[in-house]
Amino acid sequence: RVWILNPDEQGRIFLYDKYVRQLALEGLDGPFWYTHNLAMNEFPKGQYWLSVARRLSHFDGKTLTHYNLSDFPLPTSNYFAVFLSNNKLLLGGRESETYMVDLSFDRWASYEGLNFQCEDPDGNYWFLDHEGRLISAVNGESDWRVFDETDGLIDTPNRAFASSDGTVWVSGQHDGIAAISFMENGVFKRLAYPDLGNIFSHLAVLETSDGSVIFGGGSELGALENRSGGAIILRKESGRYRAAHIAPPLFPSRPAMIVEHLDDGLWFAGDRVMRSGSKGTLAPEFVDIYGGNRWTDHMVVDSTNRLWIASWGKGIYELRGEKRIVHDELSG
Question: Which tens digits make up the pLDDT trace of 114-123?
Answer without folding.
Answer: 999 999 999 9
